[in-house]
Design a protein that fits this description.
The protein has strands at about 10-15, 25-30, 35-40, 45-50, 60-65, 70-80. It is mostly beta strands. It has one domain (about 10-80): Umud Fragment, subunit A. The model has no long low-confidence stretch (mean pLDDT about 90).
Length: about 80
C-alpha cells in the first residue's frame, strides 16, 4: 500500500466498522489471504480491491464478483497509520 502504508507501519483499525464505504482502506480476508487494501464498490454490486502501490504488475487490482462474497471477510476499517521508527 505504499506510499500510504509502508512496511513496518502500525495501523489503528476499527473492528466495528465492517460496512463498506467506497474508497476507504480496510483489512480484509479473501480466499484465505489477508490484505490491507482500498475497496471500491462497483455498479454491478461487486467490489474492486486496489493497492495504492503504483506497481500494478506486482499489485494488480482484484475484481470481486458478488458470487465470491462468501470468500470475502471485511475485518476492519483502517482509521490511522503510524510510521515506523
Amino acid at each position: 500500500m505504499e506510499p500510504r502504508v509502508r512496511d513496518g507501519d502500525s495501523l489503528v483499525v476499527d473492528y466495528r466498522a465492517t460496512d463498506l464505504i467506497s474508497g476507504k482502506v480496510y483489512v480484509l480476508s479473501f480466499q484465505g489471504e489477508v490484505y490491507v487494501k482500498r475497496v471500491f464498490k462497483k455498479p454491478n454490486g461487486g467490489l474492486t480491491i486496489r493497492s495504492d502501490n503504483p506497481d500494478k504488475a506486482m499489485y494488480p487490482d482484484m475484481d470481486i464478483d458478488p458470487n465470491d462474497f462468501p470468500n470475502l471477510q471485511i475485518i476492519a476499517l483502517v482509521v490511522a497509520v503510524s510510521g515506523a521508527i
